[in-house]
Amino acid sequence: MKPTNSPRTTAQRWTGRRPGRRHAGLRIGALQRDLLFLVAAAVVAALAILPGRTGEGTSIATMQLVGQMAAMIVAAIGLNLVAGLTRLVSLGQGAFYALGAYAFSYLLLDVGLPALPAMLVTVLGCAGVGAVVALGSLRLRGPEFTMITLALAVLVQQILLRWPELGAASGYPNPLQHGTGLLDPVSVLGFEFDPPLTGGVVATAMVPIAVITVVALVLYRNLCRSAWGRSLRAVGESDMLAAHLGVNVFWRKTAALALSSALGAVGGIFYVLIYAHVQPESFDLFLSISILLAVLLGGGGTVLGPVIGSAVIVWLQQSQVLDGVTSFEQEHLSSSWYLSTPGLLGVLLILVLFLMPQGITGTLAKLWSHRAGQTTSVETEPGIAGGGDERRVVRLLEQPDQMRDGAQALLLTDVTKRFGGLVAVDALDLSVDYGSVHAIIGPNGAGKSTVANLVTGVYRPGSGSVAFEGTELSTRRPHDIARLGVARTFQTPQLFSSETVLENVKAGFADTASLPWWKASLKPPGQYRREAELDRDARALLARVGLAHDERTLAGALAYGKARALEIARALARQPRLLILDEPAAGLNSTEVAVLGELLMELRRDGMALVVVEHHMDLVASVADVVTCMAEGRVLARGTAAEVLADQEVVAAYLGRPAEDGGETLTDPRPAGGGQA
Amino acid sequence: MTLQARGLEAGYGRAAILSSIDLTLEPGGIVAVIGSNGAGKSTLARTLAGLLRLKQGEIEADGVLVQDHSAERRARSGLILVPEGRRLFGRQTVAENIRIGGRAASRRSPERARQNVEMLLDSFPVLRERWNQKAGLLSGGEQQMVALTRAVASEPRYLLLDEPSLGLSPRLTQEVFRLVTLIARETGAGILLIEQMAEQALQIADFAYVLEQGRITAEGPSSEVGSSEAVRTAYLGK
Amino acid sequence: MMDVVVTGLVTGGLYALIAQGFVLTYITTNTLNFAIGEFMVVGAFLAMFLHGNVGLTGLLAIAVAVLVTGLLGGLTYRVLVLPFSTEGKHDTRWLLTTVGLSFVIVNLTTNAEGANRQPLGFGNVDSIVTVLGERVTGQQLLLAVVAVVVTVLLVVVISRTRLGGDMRAVSEDAETTALMGISPRRIGALSYVVAMMLVGLGGILWAAQTGVSPGLGPPLLIAAFSAGIIGGLTSLWGPLLGGAVYGLVTAAVGTALGSLWGEVSGLLVVIAVLIVRPEGLLGRRVEIKV
């Protein structure tokens, strides 16, 4: 991994300032951190299974506890991909855990597969089931998705409880049907892995459990911290936002649920490795809830939260602590009306949601980054207005051929969009050239934002054509359109408020949509290089919009003007050729508006085509090459800013009067009815 | 006996959209708050009505500080908002919409509210024809009429109108504003007309505030405000 | 053949009654009480206690137990639902808090009363009735009749009364309803009270036939939930249709292939409905706004 060109000089070229210590040597830092994590995870895992090395009877309980923790950890990190990052709350992870456990046992005993193929088939099979569930349920969000997963969990448990071939309530295997109550120790390449069940036998099964857990953790951590993980967070924030970043939301959710299910199945396999026997009542709804609780308690959406949460939950379930609480209740409150473990965990679930909605790690991280954020903001420099030449370092766009100045980027022809009886956009023609800014103004309800939504694929036009570089957009979906080179910002900035500013910008790069999950989790050397490039480019973008000193601040803590700037930086990350800004000046103070104007002019000089939906007339007047004023869905006037703002009809539409000198008659050609007020 | 806002600051999340807003509204008067879109007009309306908690400042209605009162409590005491976009109950009939508006008046003077509604219906008979139609099927102008009638059924002491002209042609806007004057005259309510259509709003208002980027940049009798540069600047830039 | 139809429809009545508890709260607050099965248990235990230990007569015991269950429902809304549903439609924390509550109730009742079924000791219509030539227990028929009567009553109340008007308004646009001086929270709490009263009644009547145990709820939670989803959570008639469909399917498949596959087929119908028509057979399609 010899650097092809020195990162120091590159960074210098991009940001136009001497890189700080944080920036230099970043690539090595990332690799070191990852190695450190691997080593730490391996050490913890080794220490955890160490007490079982002698096989003494006293260590059995400990090993079972460790094994259960590992199973819960793997299932919980899987669930975190769905419930934490993608924010699809699933109550079905226990079902995949159960499926994994039963399928693995069945494949071993009844089918007679060797251990490794059995494992592989189990994991792939559960991933497949997960994908099928996803395909059926992903149009749903919120409660409906949760309900379908709940139904799945109950369905699976009902089947297991009563399916005779699987032993029903007697468990699998059971002596009556299978001649044995325990599966034979799993053997791989001649090595036998004994479960922690009998004294005097070393629980060698703990070794593969530990190894797989560490590998799963490392891959999962890579995945979460990659562009792929960012895409899940984007989906979690809003489907629409993710689509505008080029992410195919449907397949991304399907992949997340499949991965999550596969990890759930691994948890079930661990269970079999530990107990060599499965009982249906081990996999009731309570298991699903426990896994979800582990994720929430540790911190949904954080990388390591679910790991910590799982350890805590399993420890609570197995240790004497909850029993202690129970006997305390029995002694001091009531000997019959008391809560034991399941009830106490129910209370814990409610308390976590109430007191610690971000979980253990989320809460800690917030405290930490709050401090960090403060320290960085103390060293503020001129900030947004500072160093014009330094900020404008390089053009971010490698200009492709089609971006000749003056070439046509966007062409709307006779576009009409109706919502029920309301005509939002009526036979609109509009064209935008490269190297120019086209501003759309008009009173509220004129259809301006609808135009932005028509171009980016949020709405489909009822009739007419929307073409970008000659490609028809009206039948394409938002993520397709984004990939063609169209980016946008929203009326209210849509940011990942609990992520840093730097992470927010990185979500904008094309990798978010294009990086495959396996590459993200394996993280080959090329990915380190790519991440470093992303960091560097993201910093350059931040410098360009005046946020160079806020990169570690949480986006949710930004002032409104900076949040808008951040959204623009993220939109630029994909190197769009057409940028659509929906009211970028709303909420900005006049200095910020001026800086925004400069930025727009720079982008225009870079050859980009810009559509600016705006009502801030000073900004419009200073940046727009062409201004279109809309009213009631139609074009009222078009021309230079000066022409349009001087147009009598425009003035009338804005001020609600027919002409400069006040109103005798209305502009509306229809006879004024109802008399004068 | 006034509605007063003092030093209002409000917004969503951390962003403050309104700051240091002071305004006064007296019964029977029409006060316009004009500004372009994005100036913070709806935020002001929602804050006064209690749909949005303020960050700072006070709201006093008839000597009572109401900033901690819920929206429904403010409505029951006669502080009524007709929200942006009208927000009729589209699946219910015109009659049901107006009847439900009466719920805010039921503990004060339901009888007077009923008389006022009758009065409005007499001067805009079209609503009687639509009486049993689903409100969602009416045209924009008719919907605005229903929204205003629904508000009158609440027997407002202070009536906040958030952009009643939204989506209406100038002619319909004028009709709606005629209705607004009628309401002010007949019910004695103080009307805060929060509008983008400055010129028309100023014609019917006695007093006006200009809202620009969340702050009041000019105020005065509406004839003065109308002839000042402040309005032009707020809309069309410098 | 006929026996399957009759059994299916009659058991569907119980599901419909409980599902009404979902629908009522969903219409006004967009939330569901996932501890609904446990509220059945609470109702049944309360009735048993009031009759057996306090000595109330059967009907009075039922009335008081139903009322108390309803009030507990209102309390649940105030404490566990309202504070956890503040962040719009995608906020589903209420779902987890009510699931947490269900664990608490099951655990508490199991510890106190044991997991075994206890006879309620009263309230059972001890007879066999012949419907369309098929014999069903009087109790099941009673439940089906109660479900129909309750549904008709609810429809009348909601479409004809002032309170019903308020509820419809809240269901359409809670914020604007607040501007009319009506408290959406109060309407929500009231819906929870009424909904849990129905659930408590269903629990008592069901337990009168089968006995009461902490495990009474969960199977019925799934059935009622299925009935609600199939019929549509936004329609008061939904539970009746959904209960009938679910009852018929589970009875038919159950008779043919065994009760396990009966339940499986019921849940498959639910999943199919969620996929094809997420708003349910009678539900209103919610427009997606951007």
The whole-angstrom Rg of chain C is 19 Å
Assign the structural class of chain C, choosing from mainly alpha, mainly beta, alpha/beta, alpha+beta, or little secondary structure: mainly alpha
> Overall 3D geometry of chain C?
globular
Number of helices of chain A: 28
Reported by name, the CATH topology of the largest domain in chain A is: ABC transporter involved in vitamin B12 uptake, BtuC
Terminal Cα span of chain C: 49 Å
Beta-strand content of chain A: 5-15%
Strand order of the largest sheet of chain C: 1-2
Assign a percent range to the helix content of chain A: 40-55%
Taken as a percent bin, the fraction of beta residues of chain C is under 5%
Main-sheet strand order of chain A equals 8-9-10-5-11-12
Mean pLDDT across every amino acid position of chain A = 84
Organism (chain A): Nocardioides acrostichi
Transmembrane segments (chain A): 35-54, 60-81, 88-109, 115-138, 145-163, 197-220, 257-278, 285-316, 336-356
Keywords (chain A): ATP-binding, Cell membrane, Membrane, Nucleotide-binding, Transmembrane, Transmembrane helix, Transport
Biased composition (Polar residues) (chain A): 1-13
Describe this structure in words.
- Chain C: It is found in: Cell membrane.
- Chain C: InterPro entries: ABC_transp_permease, BCAA_transport_permease.
- Chain C: Keywords: Amino-acid transport, Cell membrane, Membrane, Transmembrane, Transmembrane helix, Transport.
- Chain C: GO terms for molecular function: transmembrane transporter activity.
- The complex is a heterotrimer of chains A (677), B (238) and C (290).
- Chain A is built from 28 helices and 12 strands.
- Chain A has 677 residues and is an alpha/beta fold.
- Chain A has 2 domains: 313 residues, Orthogonal Bundle (ABC transporter involved in vitamin B12 uptake, BtuC), CATH 1.10.3470; 225 residues, 3-Layer(aba) Sandwich (Rossmann fold), CATH 3.40.50.
- In chain A, the strands form 3 sheets. Chain A has a 6-stranded mixed sheet, with helices on both faces.
- In chain A, a hairpin with a 2-residue loop joins strand 1 and strand 2.
- In chain A, helix 3 crosses helix 12.
- The longest helix of chain A has 27 residues.
- With 238 residues, chain B is an alpha/beta fold.
- Helix content of chain B is 39%, strand content 25%.
- In chain B, strand 7, helix 7 and strand 8 form a beta-alpha-beta unit.
- Chain B is globular and about 45 Å long.
- Chain C has one domain.
- Helices cover 73% and strands 3% of the residues of chain C.
- The model of chain C has no long low-confidence stretch (mean pLDDT 89).
- By secondary structure, chain C is mainly alpha-helical.
- In chain C, strand 1 and strand 2 form a beta hairpin.
- Chain C has a two-stranded antiparallel ribbon with strand order 1-2.
- The chains are: A alpha/beta (677), B alpha/beta (238), C mainly alpha (290).
- The interface between A and C is large, with 50 and 40 residues.
